[in-house]
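Protocol step 4 of 6: record predicted structures for both targets in the notebook before any analysis. Target 1:
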Amino acid sequence: MTIASRVLSIALSAIVLSLPALPASAADKPIKVGVSAGPYGDILREAARLSEKEGLKAEIIEFTDWNQPNAALQAGDIDLNNFQHRFYLANQSKARGYKLAALDESILVPAGIFSRKYKKASEIPDGARIAIPNDPTNAARALLLFEKAGLLKLKPNTGLSATILDVAENPNKLQIAEIDAAQLPRSLDDVAAAFVSSNYAYLAGLPLSTALVAETEVTEAKPYFTLIFAAREDRKDEANLKKFIAIYRSQPVKDFILAKFKGSILPAW
């Protein structure tokens, strides 16, 4: 056994010893974890690989629509999901009557404003079209970042409740298009700039370092790009779910994130 293997074994053993034993039926049945398509699934698959060594099988299920993972969780089709920040979860739960609980934090996924046509936000011309996500919380994130870029000014104290109706000043008369988040990278051929979340930016080959403005520069926005695990309220304390999350939040998975994503995605622990 190599030194690295010994370290991995010791780290995972410490996690497992600190958790309650699983019933045999729970240990044999894979847990199903939902995630949006993209790099978040790569991290979950690494955690699943490690958890299987500890007797817990996990199946990672990718969804292409941000509405699907919470619907599937509420319906009992999956056991956990990991794709959203707590504000998105709260918004969907309120709007759709879901009984879902926010659990531990997983990763930091700062988004950015990207452009294929301009190198600086200040180069975007009058009357240009920009794009933001069409879901409420992420639309607000985008508007805050466009404000940070100096292109818009929002009404005071709107924060994560901001909508395009809260744009108080639009000196360049920009046209704001609301587009499904998964389609925003493709929109870059047709718009001057777009807000793109980290998973879709990664899939589209858009490093955060190339963004006109990155969310990392808006320190107060940190809670809005920290992802969390979610489970149904009536299942949030189940031992197998806690065990998987603990293995995910281990040093070996942290090392995997840092090596693979080189700062575009960061561990939240």
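Target 2:
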Amino acid sequence: MNSESDDWIELLRRTADSVEAALAAFDRWRDGGERPDQYALDQVADDAALGVLEASSVGVLSEESGRRAGSGSETVIVDPVDGSTNASRGIPHYCISLCAVDGLVPVAGLVRHLVSGEEFTAVAGGGAQRNGTPIGPSGQTSGERAVIGVSGRPGADLPVWQVRVLGSAALDLCAVACGRLDAYIDLNSNHGVWDYAAGILICNEAGAWTGETSGRELFHLSHGERRGPIAASTPELAALLRG
């Protein structure tokens, strides 16, 4: 990992630290935010993230506050709390997801579980780590014993052994990257880029297969566009899920 990569991870880590500190003092978990699809916790976390990122002069694309230009071509894609419905209901499965891109090319990503503190990181060409230890996918090639994560309502026709609906795309993708899940698929093509950007980079660097349900490019900087991310431990399992 070169010094520039170290700088990116350090910035993303400071951003996660700020969000974690803001939520440690937060006590209005069920309160709504300014939008119908938002919680107060999302806004508090977003303010904390922006306080760090804007001081660094990078551009920002956040689920909660949209896009802000920076001084150059780099943008940090931010989901301050991925799994905020889980958080609002006291389900301890949610995270911050951060991905730095240069243009549309991902260069560094960080996903931190905001309850356990477990942290996944990756830099382009530098592999992926969990708490600083290199990770890799399970290697599962068939659906017979595959356990996968999904977003949406799974039907009986999914050709896998078991399904988990856990409520955080970023954490599900990291679970694929480290072999806890064999695959992940968004059945409804309903995710913003902030939900999956860091997780997709972490999967790629760990050696998992990644793609999109309709074959579209996953990385973009539009607040309104939605995609259907897929990640699988092997191309064979990905082909099975894509039908």
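Step 5 preliminary note on target 2. The mean pLDDT is 95. The longest strand covers residues 74-82.
Proceed to step 6 after PI sign-off.
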